[in-house]
């Protein structure tokens, strides 16, 4: 549907995206995940056609109907919820009857039906995002672009926003959504990891799990010994990474047995909880690519 | 106890922002304060920082009375917000020197050098903060917030939006400082971050609805879940769901 | 305390050094404004475009047209018809239309013979200027005509004396010829004629004298006007001292408001609040740098105003500086006040403009306070610029001592204290 060929985009001296080659348009939710400054917004704006590549080409299916929700709330705050939806429906040329039907449907999906007459500006952060998404899918676009819809939204509302995105995806709209929260990768059918203008990986979630090259151990209730253990573990050549996650201690290693046995022994000697084997979380996955990439520059 | 709040309440007109909060945080602890927007986190933090006076209740921070000894509290407090409140047009060194001046640190030169060594900022000391990537900015903000070796450090959504390696590095340093005796209070609605704290306090509608170590919270709420190990986010959503029906507007 | 304030001031100056554009704006903008406004607020129009409609087309009317042509302030656009004149006036290609009626003779005796002058009132200042100049010109014309009239009357009176001296033309002559011998008659005639002539001459001279006495002296018809302090009545001289105040209040208020709100926007203010820095120290540390810049601006604007526009400064600099600083303090306080009620730079900008624009109109900067109705004037009395303006003008043009203006200076002082005080209180509450 959309293909990037060696796309580079610069803003003055700054390179926001470098040599990006990728294909978008699989059914389902495509997550675009990376920290601030990774190039997420630039990539989404390129897809939307709001900006153009400095180098390279973007091939795009003709007559592709887009929906786009920018990072900042783009509804008219002084207008009501339904009024906003009517307006966007009119822009997309829906006649009155179809518009009303679609609005009723969307209000129901978003749980905004109770607030149909409320001023858009008076909604909470999560509700605003849901309204913006509803307005963007009034015309059932082929591709919906969402730029950080959950940024700064509290956990409850964030879950609701993701539910709405999933509903939209089920309707057949393909979704490209960016986020800085790594753990939100779990809601996606395909995950593109972006860092400093480059694509680290672009795969299905289970593939990430399967290709994770380390075994992961988690030592529970190790808060009291973390300082001592971490400095010891980091000297072990068999340990690829060790870090503290709250009272848990997380250890990566390629070697299956020795590290596990060592941790068991330590745990018995000192006051630390059970040692479990775990699976990598999304932050582990992201970190892995950064480590392989030799991203030492920002290392602490 | 570094922080001890007894039935602390703050009202703005008819609106109760913080409602009878009891909280204790011990020396060297990293305590996470989580809650949705408008749950009262910010108001509680502002009272602890000595910026707002409580309407009712009592509290001691670092052994000083929250009502009467606010200045003393502020002298011993460090604060860092997610916005990395640095002056973007000043260099790293100028920022550190400015905050050293504001905190009236003794022997500014030595302290600033020491901080830059410890945080590895020497090579970028002459760079303007605006030109630094997010992770570095955070590091400079962290260095300037702890320049005066505060006994209590308050972090407001400290690592949202930085890459995971920078984030781990940040927490490593934080654990190190906590081990040296610095108490840390982190407010966040980012559950990943809350999971890194020693203890977590959950707020909703001005009240403290749950408090304890992450594993305590897990075991307390596991009965209501099929999983053996629910995530903090699941616990949180479950707790708030029980607390009250949701209202969609502010 | 001073170490923290020092740190703030130092930081502020580093920032200014980095942000050359803002610094240049803070220093250059007032000068640019002054220069631009200084040239713009000139209400005096040098040459007036004149259309003449000549219905008379006689010697007198041609003389008048010649006079208009010779007048330096006038530029004769053309001799036109009534409708053309009206059209020119409408399009603005002429400033005045002077209509010379049929039968014009310089000294109108009937209403139909008076000159008509038309100006375009929608172009207020042009119309006023034009009217003033035309009136003056016509006054001069009238004087000329008066002189001419007097000469003519004298001449015609003097012509009357030769009419009655020759006895031979009178009916009594044949009787006298019969009564007297020719020689005696001749002698008598010449004697009589001499006597008569003397008599007539005396009476004519008396009459001329009387006429002269009754006749106004055209030289004295114009009042003797003595303009003090601004002898050429140049509006620039009136505007510049006011403009100095206006530019200063604008720059200081805006600069202070934006400087503080910028910190609010960036979140650095939040950071400062949780430090041991007290709100008072923060305020002082923020205000001192801006105050210094305002002082630099003051001298710049002052110097440029005097140098570039030749505005005389007859007062003394130091007392004037003192009063100006008082005025500046008030402006700083106003800026601070604006910053406490705005969340972002845009809001601060709007609010600052909102408080400043009425001052331009209502302070007496352009329109005299005396001309304003009671209710509006009351609003004017609330504005600091209203009090600074008369002092500034009188110090500049009259060389007055600003401290003689007790009421104005004390109001400025009250404003400075009030604005700074309220701002400080709000500032403190705001941070808390």
UniProtKB/TrEMBL annotation, chain A:
<dbReference type="InterPro" id="IPR027417">
    <property type="entry name" value="P-loop_NTPase"/>
</dbReference>
<dbReference type="Pfam" id="PF00005">
    <property type="entry name" value="ABC_tran"/>
</dbReference>
<keyword id="KW-0547">Nucleotide-binding</keyword>
<dbReference type="InterPro" id="IPR017871">
    <property type="entry name" value="ABC_transporter-like_CS"/>
</dbReference>
<feature type="domain" description="ABC transporter">
    <location>
        <begin position="2"/>
        <end position="221"/>
    </location>
</feature>
<dbReference type="InterPro" id="IPR003593">
    <property type="entry name" value="AAA+_ATPase"/>
</dbReference>
<keyword id="KW-0067">ATP-binding</keyword>
<protein>
    <recommendedName>
        <fullName>ABC transporter domain-containing protein</fullName>
    </recommendedName>
</protein>
<dbReference type="InterPro" id="IPR003439">
    <property type="entry name" value="ABC_transporter-like_ATP-bd"/>
</dbReference>
TrEMBL record, chain B:
<protein>
    <recommendedName>
        <fullName>ABC transporter domain-containing protein</fullName>
    </recommendedName>
</protein>
<feature type="domain" description="ABC transporter">
    <location>
        <begin position="3"/>
        <end position="230"/>
    </location>
</feature>
<dbReference type="InterPro" id="IPR027417">
    <property type="entry name" value="P-loop_NTPase"/>
</dbReference>
<dbReference type="Pfam" id="PF00005">
    <property type="entry name" value="ABC_tran"/>
</dbReference>
<keyword id="KW-0547">Nucleotide-binding</keyword>
<dbReference type="InterPro" id="IPR003439">
    <property type="entry name" value="ABC_transporter-like_ATP-bd"/>
</dbReference>
<dbReference type="InterPro" id="IPR003593">
    <property type="entry name" value="AAA+_ATPase"/>
</dbReference>
<keyword id="KW-0067">ATP-binding</keyword>
UniProtKB/TrEMBL annotation, chain C:
<feature type="transmembrane region" description="Helical">
    <location>
        <begin position="409"/>
        <end position="427"/>
    </location>
</feature>
<dbReference type="InterPro" id="IPR000412">
    <property type="entry name" value="ABC_2_transport"/>
</dbReference>
<feature type="transmembrane region" description="Helical">
    <location>
        <begin position="320"/>
        <end position="339"/>
    </location>
</feature>
<feature type="transmembrane region" description="Helical">
    <location>
        <begin position="351"/>
        <end position="376"/>
    </location>
</feature>
<feature type="domain" description="ABC transmembrane type-2">
    <location>
        <begin position="197"/>
        <end position="430"/>
    </location>
</feature>
<keyword id="KW-0813">Transport</keyword>
<dbReference type="InterPro" id="IPR047817">
    <property type="entry name" value="ABC2_TM_bact-type"/>
</dbReference>
<comment type="similarity">
    <text>Belongs to the ABC-2 integral membrane protein family.</text>
</comment>
<keyword id="KW-1133">Transmembrane helix</keyword>
<feature type="transmembrane region" description="Helical">
    <location>
        <begin position="21"/>
        <end position="41"/>
    </location>
</feature>
<keyword id="KW-1003">Cell membrane</keyword>
<dbReference type="Pfam" id="PF12698">
    <property type="entry name" value="ABC2_membrane_3"/>
</dbReference>
<dbReference type="InterPro" id="IPR051449">
    <property type="entry name" value="ABC-2_transporter_component"/>
</dbReference>
<feature type="transmembrane region" description="Helical">
    <location>
        <begin position="287"/>
        <end position="308"/>
    </location>
</feature>
<feature type="transmembrane region" description="Helical">
    <location>
        <begin position="238"/>
        <end position="261"/>
    </location>
</feature>
